[in-house]
Amino acid sequence: MSSKVKLSKEAGQKADEIIAFHGYSSLEELIEDLINKEYEKIKSGDNKEELANKLSGLGYIS
Amino acid sequence: MIRRDFIKSGGTLLAAAPFMNFGAGNPLTKKMLVLGFDGMDPGIVNRLMQQGQLPNMQRLGGQGVFTMMHSTIPPQSPVAWGSFISGADPGVYGIFDFLHRNPDNYTPFFSQSETLPSRMLVNLGQYQIPLKPGKVVLKREGRAFWDYMEDRGIPATVLKLPTNYPPSESKQRTLSGMGTPDILGTYGIYSLYTSDENESQKDITPNNVYYAYIDENNIMEGQIEGPRNDLLKEGENVVVPFKVYVDNRHKTARIDIQGQEILIAEKEYSDWVEIKFSLISNLASITGMVKFYLMEMGDRFRLYISPTHISPRDPAVPISTPAGYSRELTDHVGLFHTIGLPADTKALGQGTFAMENFITQSLSVFDESCHMFDFELQRFSSQKEGLLFFYFSSLDQGQHMFWALNDKEHPYYHPEESRKFAYITDEMYRKFDRVLGKAMKNIDPGIPLLLMSDHGFGPFRRGVNVNTWLVKEGYLKMTTSDISEAVSILGYADWPASKAYALGLNGLYLNLKGREKEGAVAPEERRRLLDEIKAKLENISDPQNGNKVISCAYISEDNFSKNFIDRAPDIILGFDRGYRISNESALGSLSREVVSDNMDWWSGDHCVDPKKVPASFIANFKIQSPVPNMQDVAPTILKYFGIATPSQMTGKALI
What is the ipTM of this complex? Predict the structure, then answer.
């Protein structure tokens, strides 16, 4: 799938800095990497930890 | 009579002595008092009554009835008190567990309320200001019984009742209870400052532990973390600094925070300390409050800071109706705890508290509730008509943590702790008997008085990982061969190949096509599969001793009204005595063993088969059913006040 993403000037500048800092070859590569990382977070149950933290005060789940 | 015999007897223990006619249309008076003692177990009450240790309960029951009462399926407090509020089964008000799940992504969430974020943000310098504020929404459906009283102009005051946060809209006086969060939106995150380096390295997530560095002037600096400041574009948590001046010679400390000076001695709790968390300098802030507990001084310095409660004087979110009621209460009784489950069971479980610290805190919560009750009881005594309902949490929270002290079969039984503290459960029951005694003394004997609980109690000796069982039985497929605590169905389930999963404290769901995002069970296969899984669940035996683990698996569609049954698990797991869902399974994680020892002070529980943990019903009036049901109480109250049972209610009036 190919799609265009419109970034604000400020976000574009930040993206350029991140690309330079981490050595990404392009904006597409940066975005793809960020999407993959975010997806991994969801798949590994990151929100589960947050939920567990929130619920732990109930006592029923340690 | 031993407990089991009592339960088997299945009926009224104390025959009603004088018949008191509280039937509708002919009330002796138009007032009624209902006390809710969460977790009061009829078996324990019966034992202590036989020993003459609960004279007031004995007297109350002697005037009318003492019996056990059917709790809800499952017998969890939000579900059972929801039934009390609605006069109905859970299908009517839509709360089936502490946790429900979102079928779109399989994620569990808190069932009682939902926080909706603010919308339409306007950028203003470093801030983003919401034009429409966020709000918290109560997920309990339908009307509360006090709404019908309001329709007839009959006043009701309902304090600390679970499953009523945020409180449903009403002109009656109500104060929210279980389900009310702290200022961070959690159900209680505490902090510990300790000079013990090893302890300061300990992981007590999500609670906070800090190394207490005390300088050469005997000053320690710390901070209290407040809520995330969502008004800032770069959202960050607001913090409030404080200083502790340590005086080891006199075993005291002075805490300076926001211009307030608090003096406390070792082993002492401070009063409530209000704190303002500034969101926009001098323009917007929210108020919380904490208690400091100076646990140790000298060789080791340990300072516990309670979760930051919503201040009832200036609540950041609604906790009462009318909104000013919590402030009015504060004016009369001072500040009081607002978190729904105020005793810090986590602090004991994580070793921050020793048992004596936990008992101290529990008693402080109890005393605070008693103080508030005294005030409302006086007001009730001077009223001409109406209902007062008052809820106490301490018996429930205490029994969760004290059970192993009296249970030699419990894997977490500690003989030394038991020798010192085994008395505490019975002592709590005696304390509650005195609360009842005070109520009986202060109201006219002709006024109907009902003392009730939502469920009883039992041991939680072994945890059951139902997800691991589902994997072993082939109903749940994973994308990894690792079966351990590190693996969650939320990250590793092979959904298109999975037929069932477990989430929450009693819930098992089919992975249904058309309902779950990646459903695998066709609608025509559903009922056969439910019956098959039910039969297998009821056959699980504990490999350690051969005991049955689940005494009844309840198929929801056979047990609930259909109104909101779409929120319900497909099967409610009724664990047998001694068993409960494991902590891991409740949130969707696996573990190596299906059944394993519960090695935690959280050693008693009630999230089991409701037949194993009936509730208590003690009243000074006679009822028409030998074993009432939780959902019968609201129709009974309404009938007493001359109101016919509303069509929403599935319960039946008992008078």
Answer: 0.73
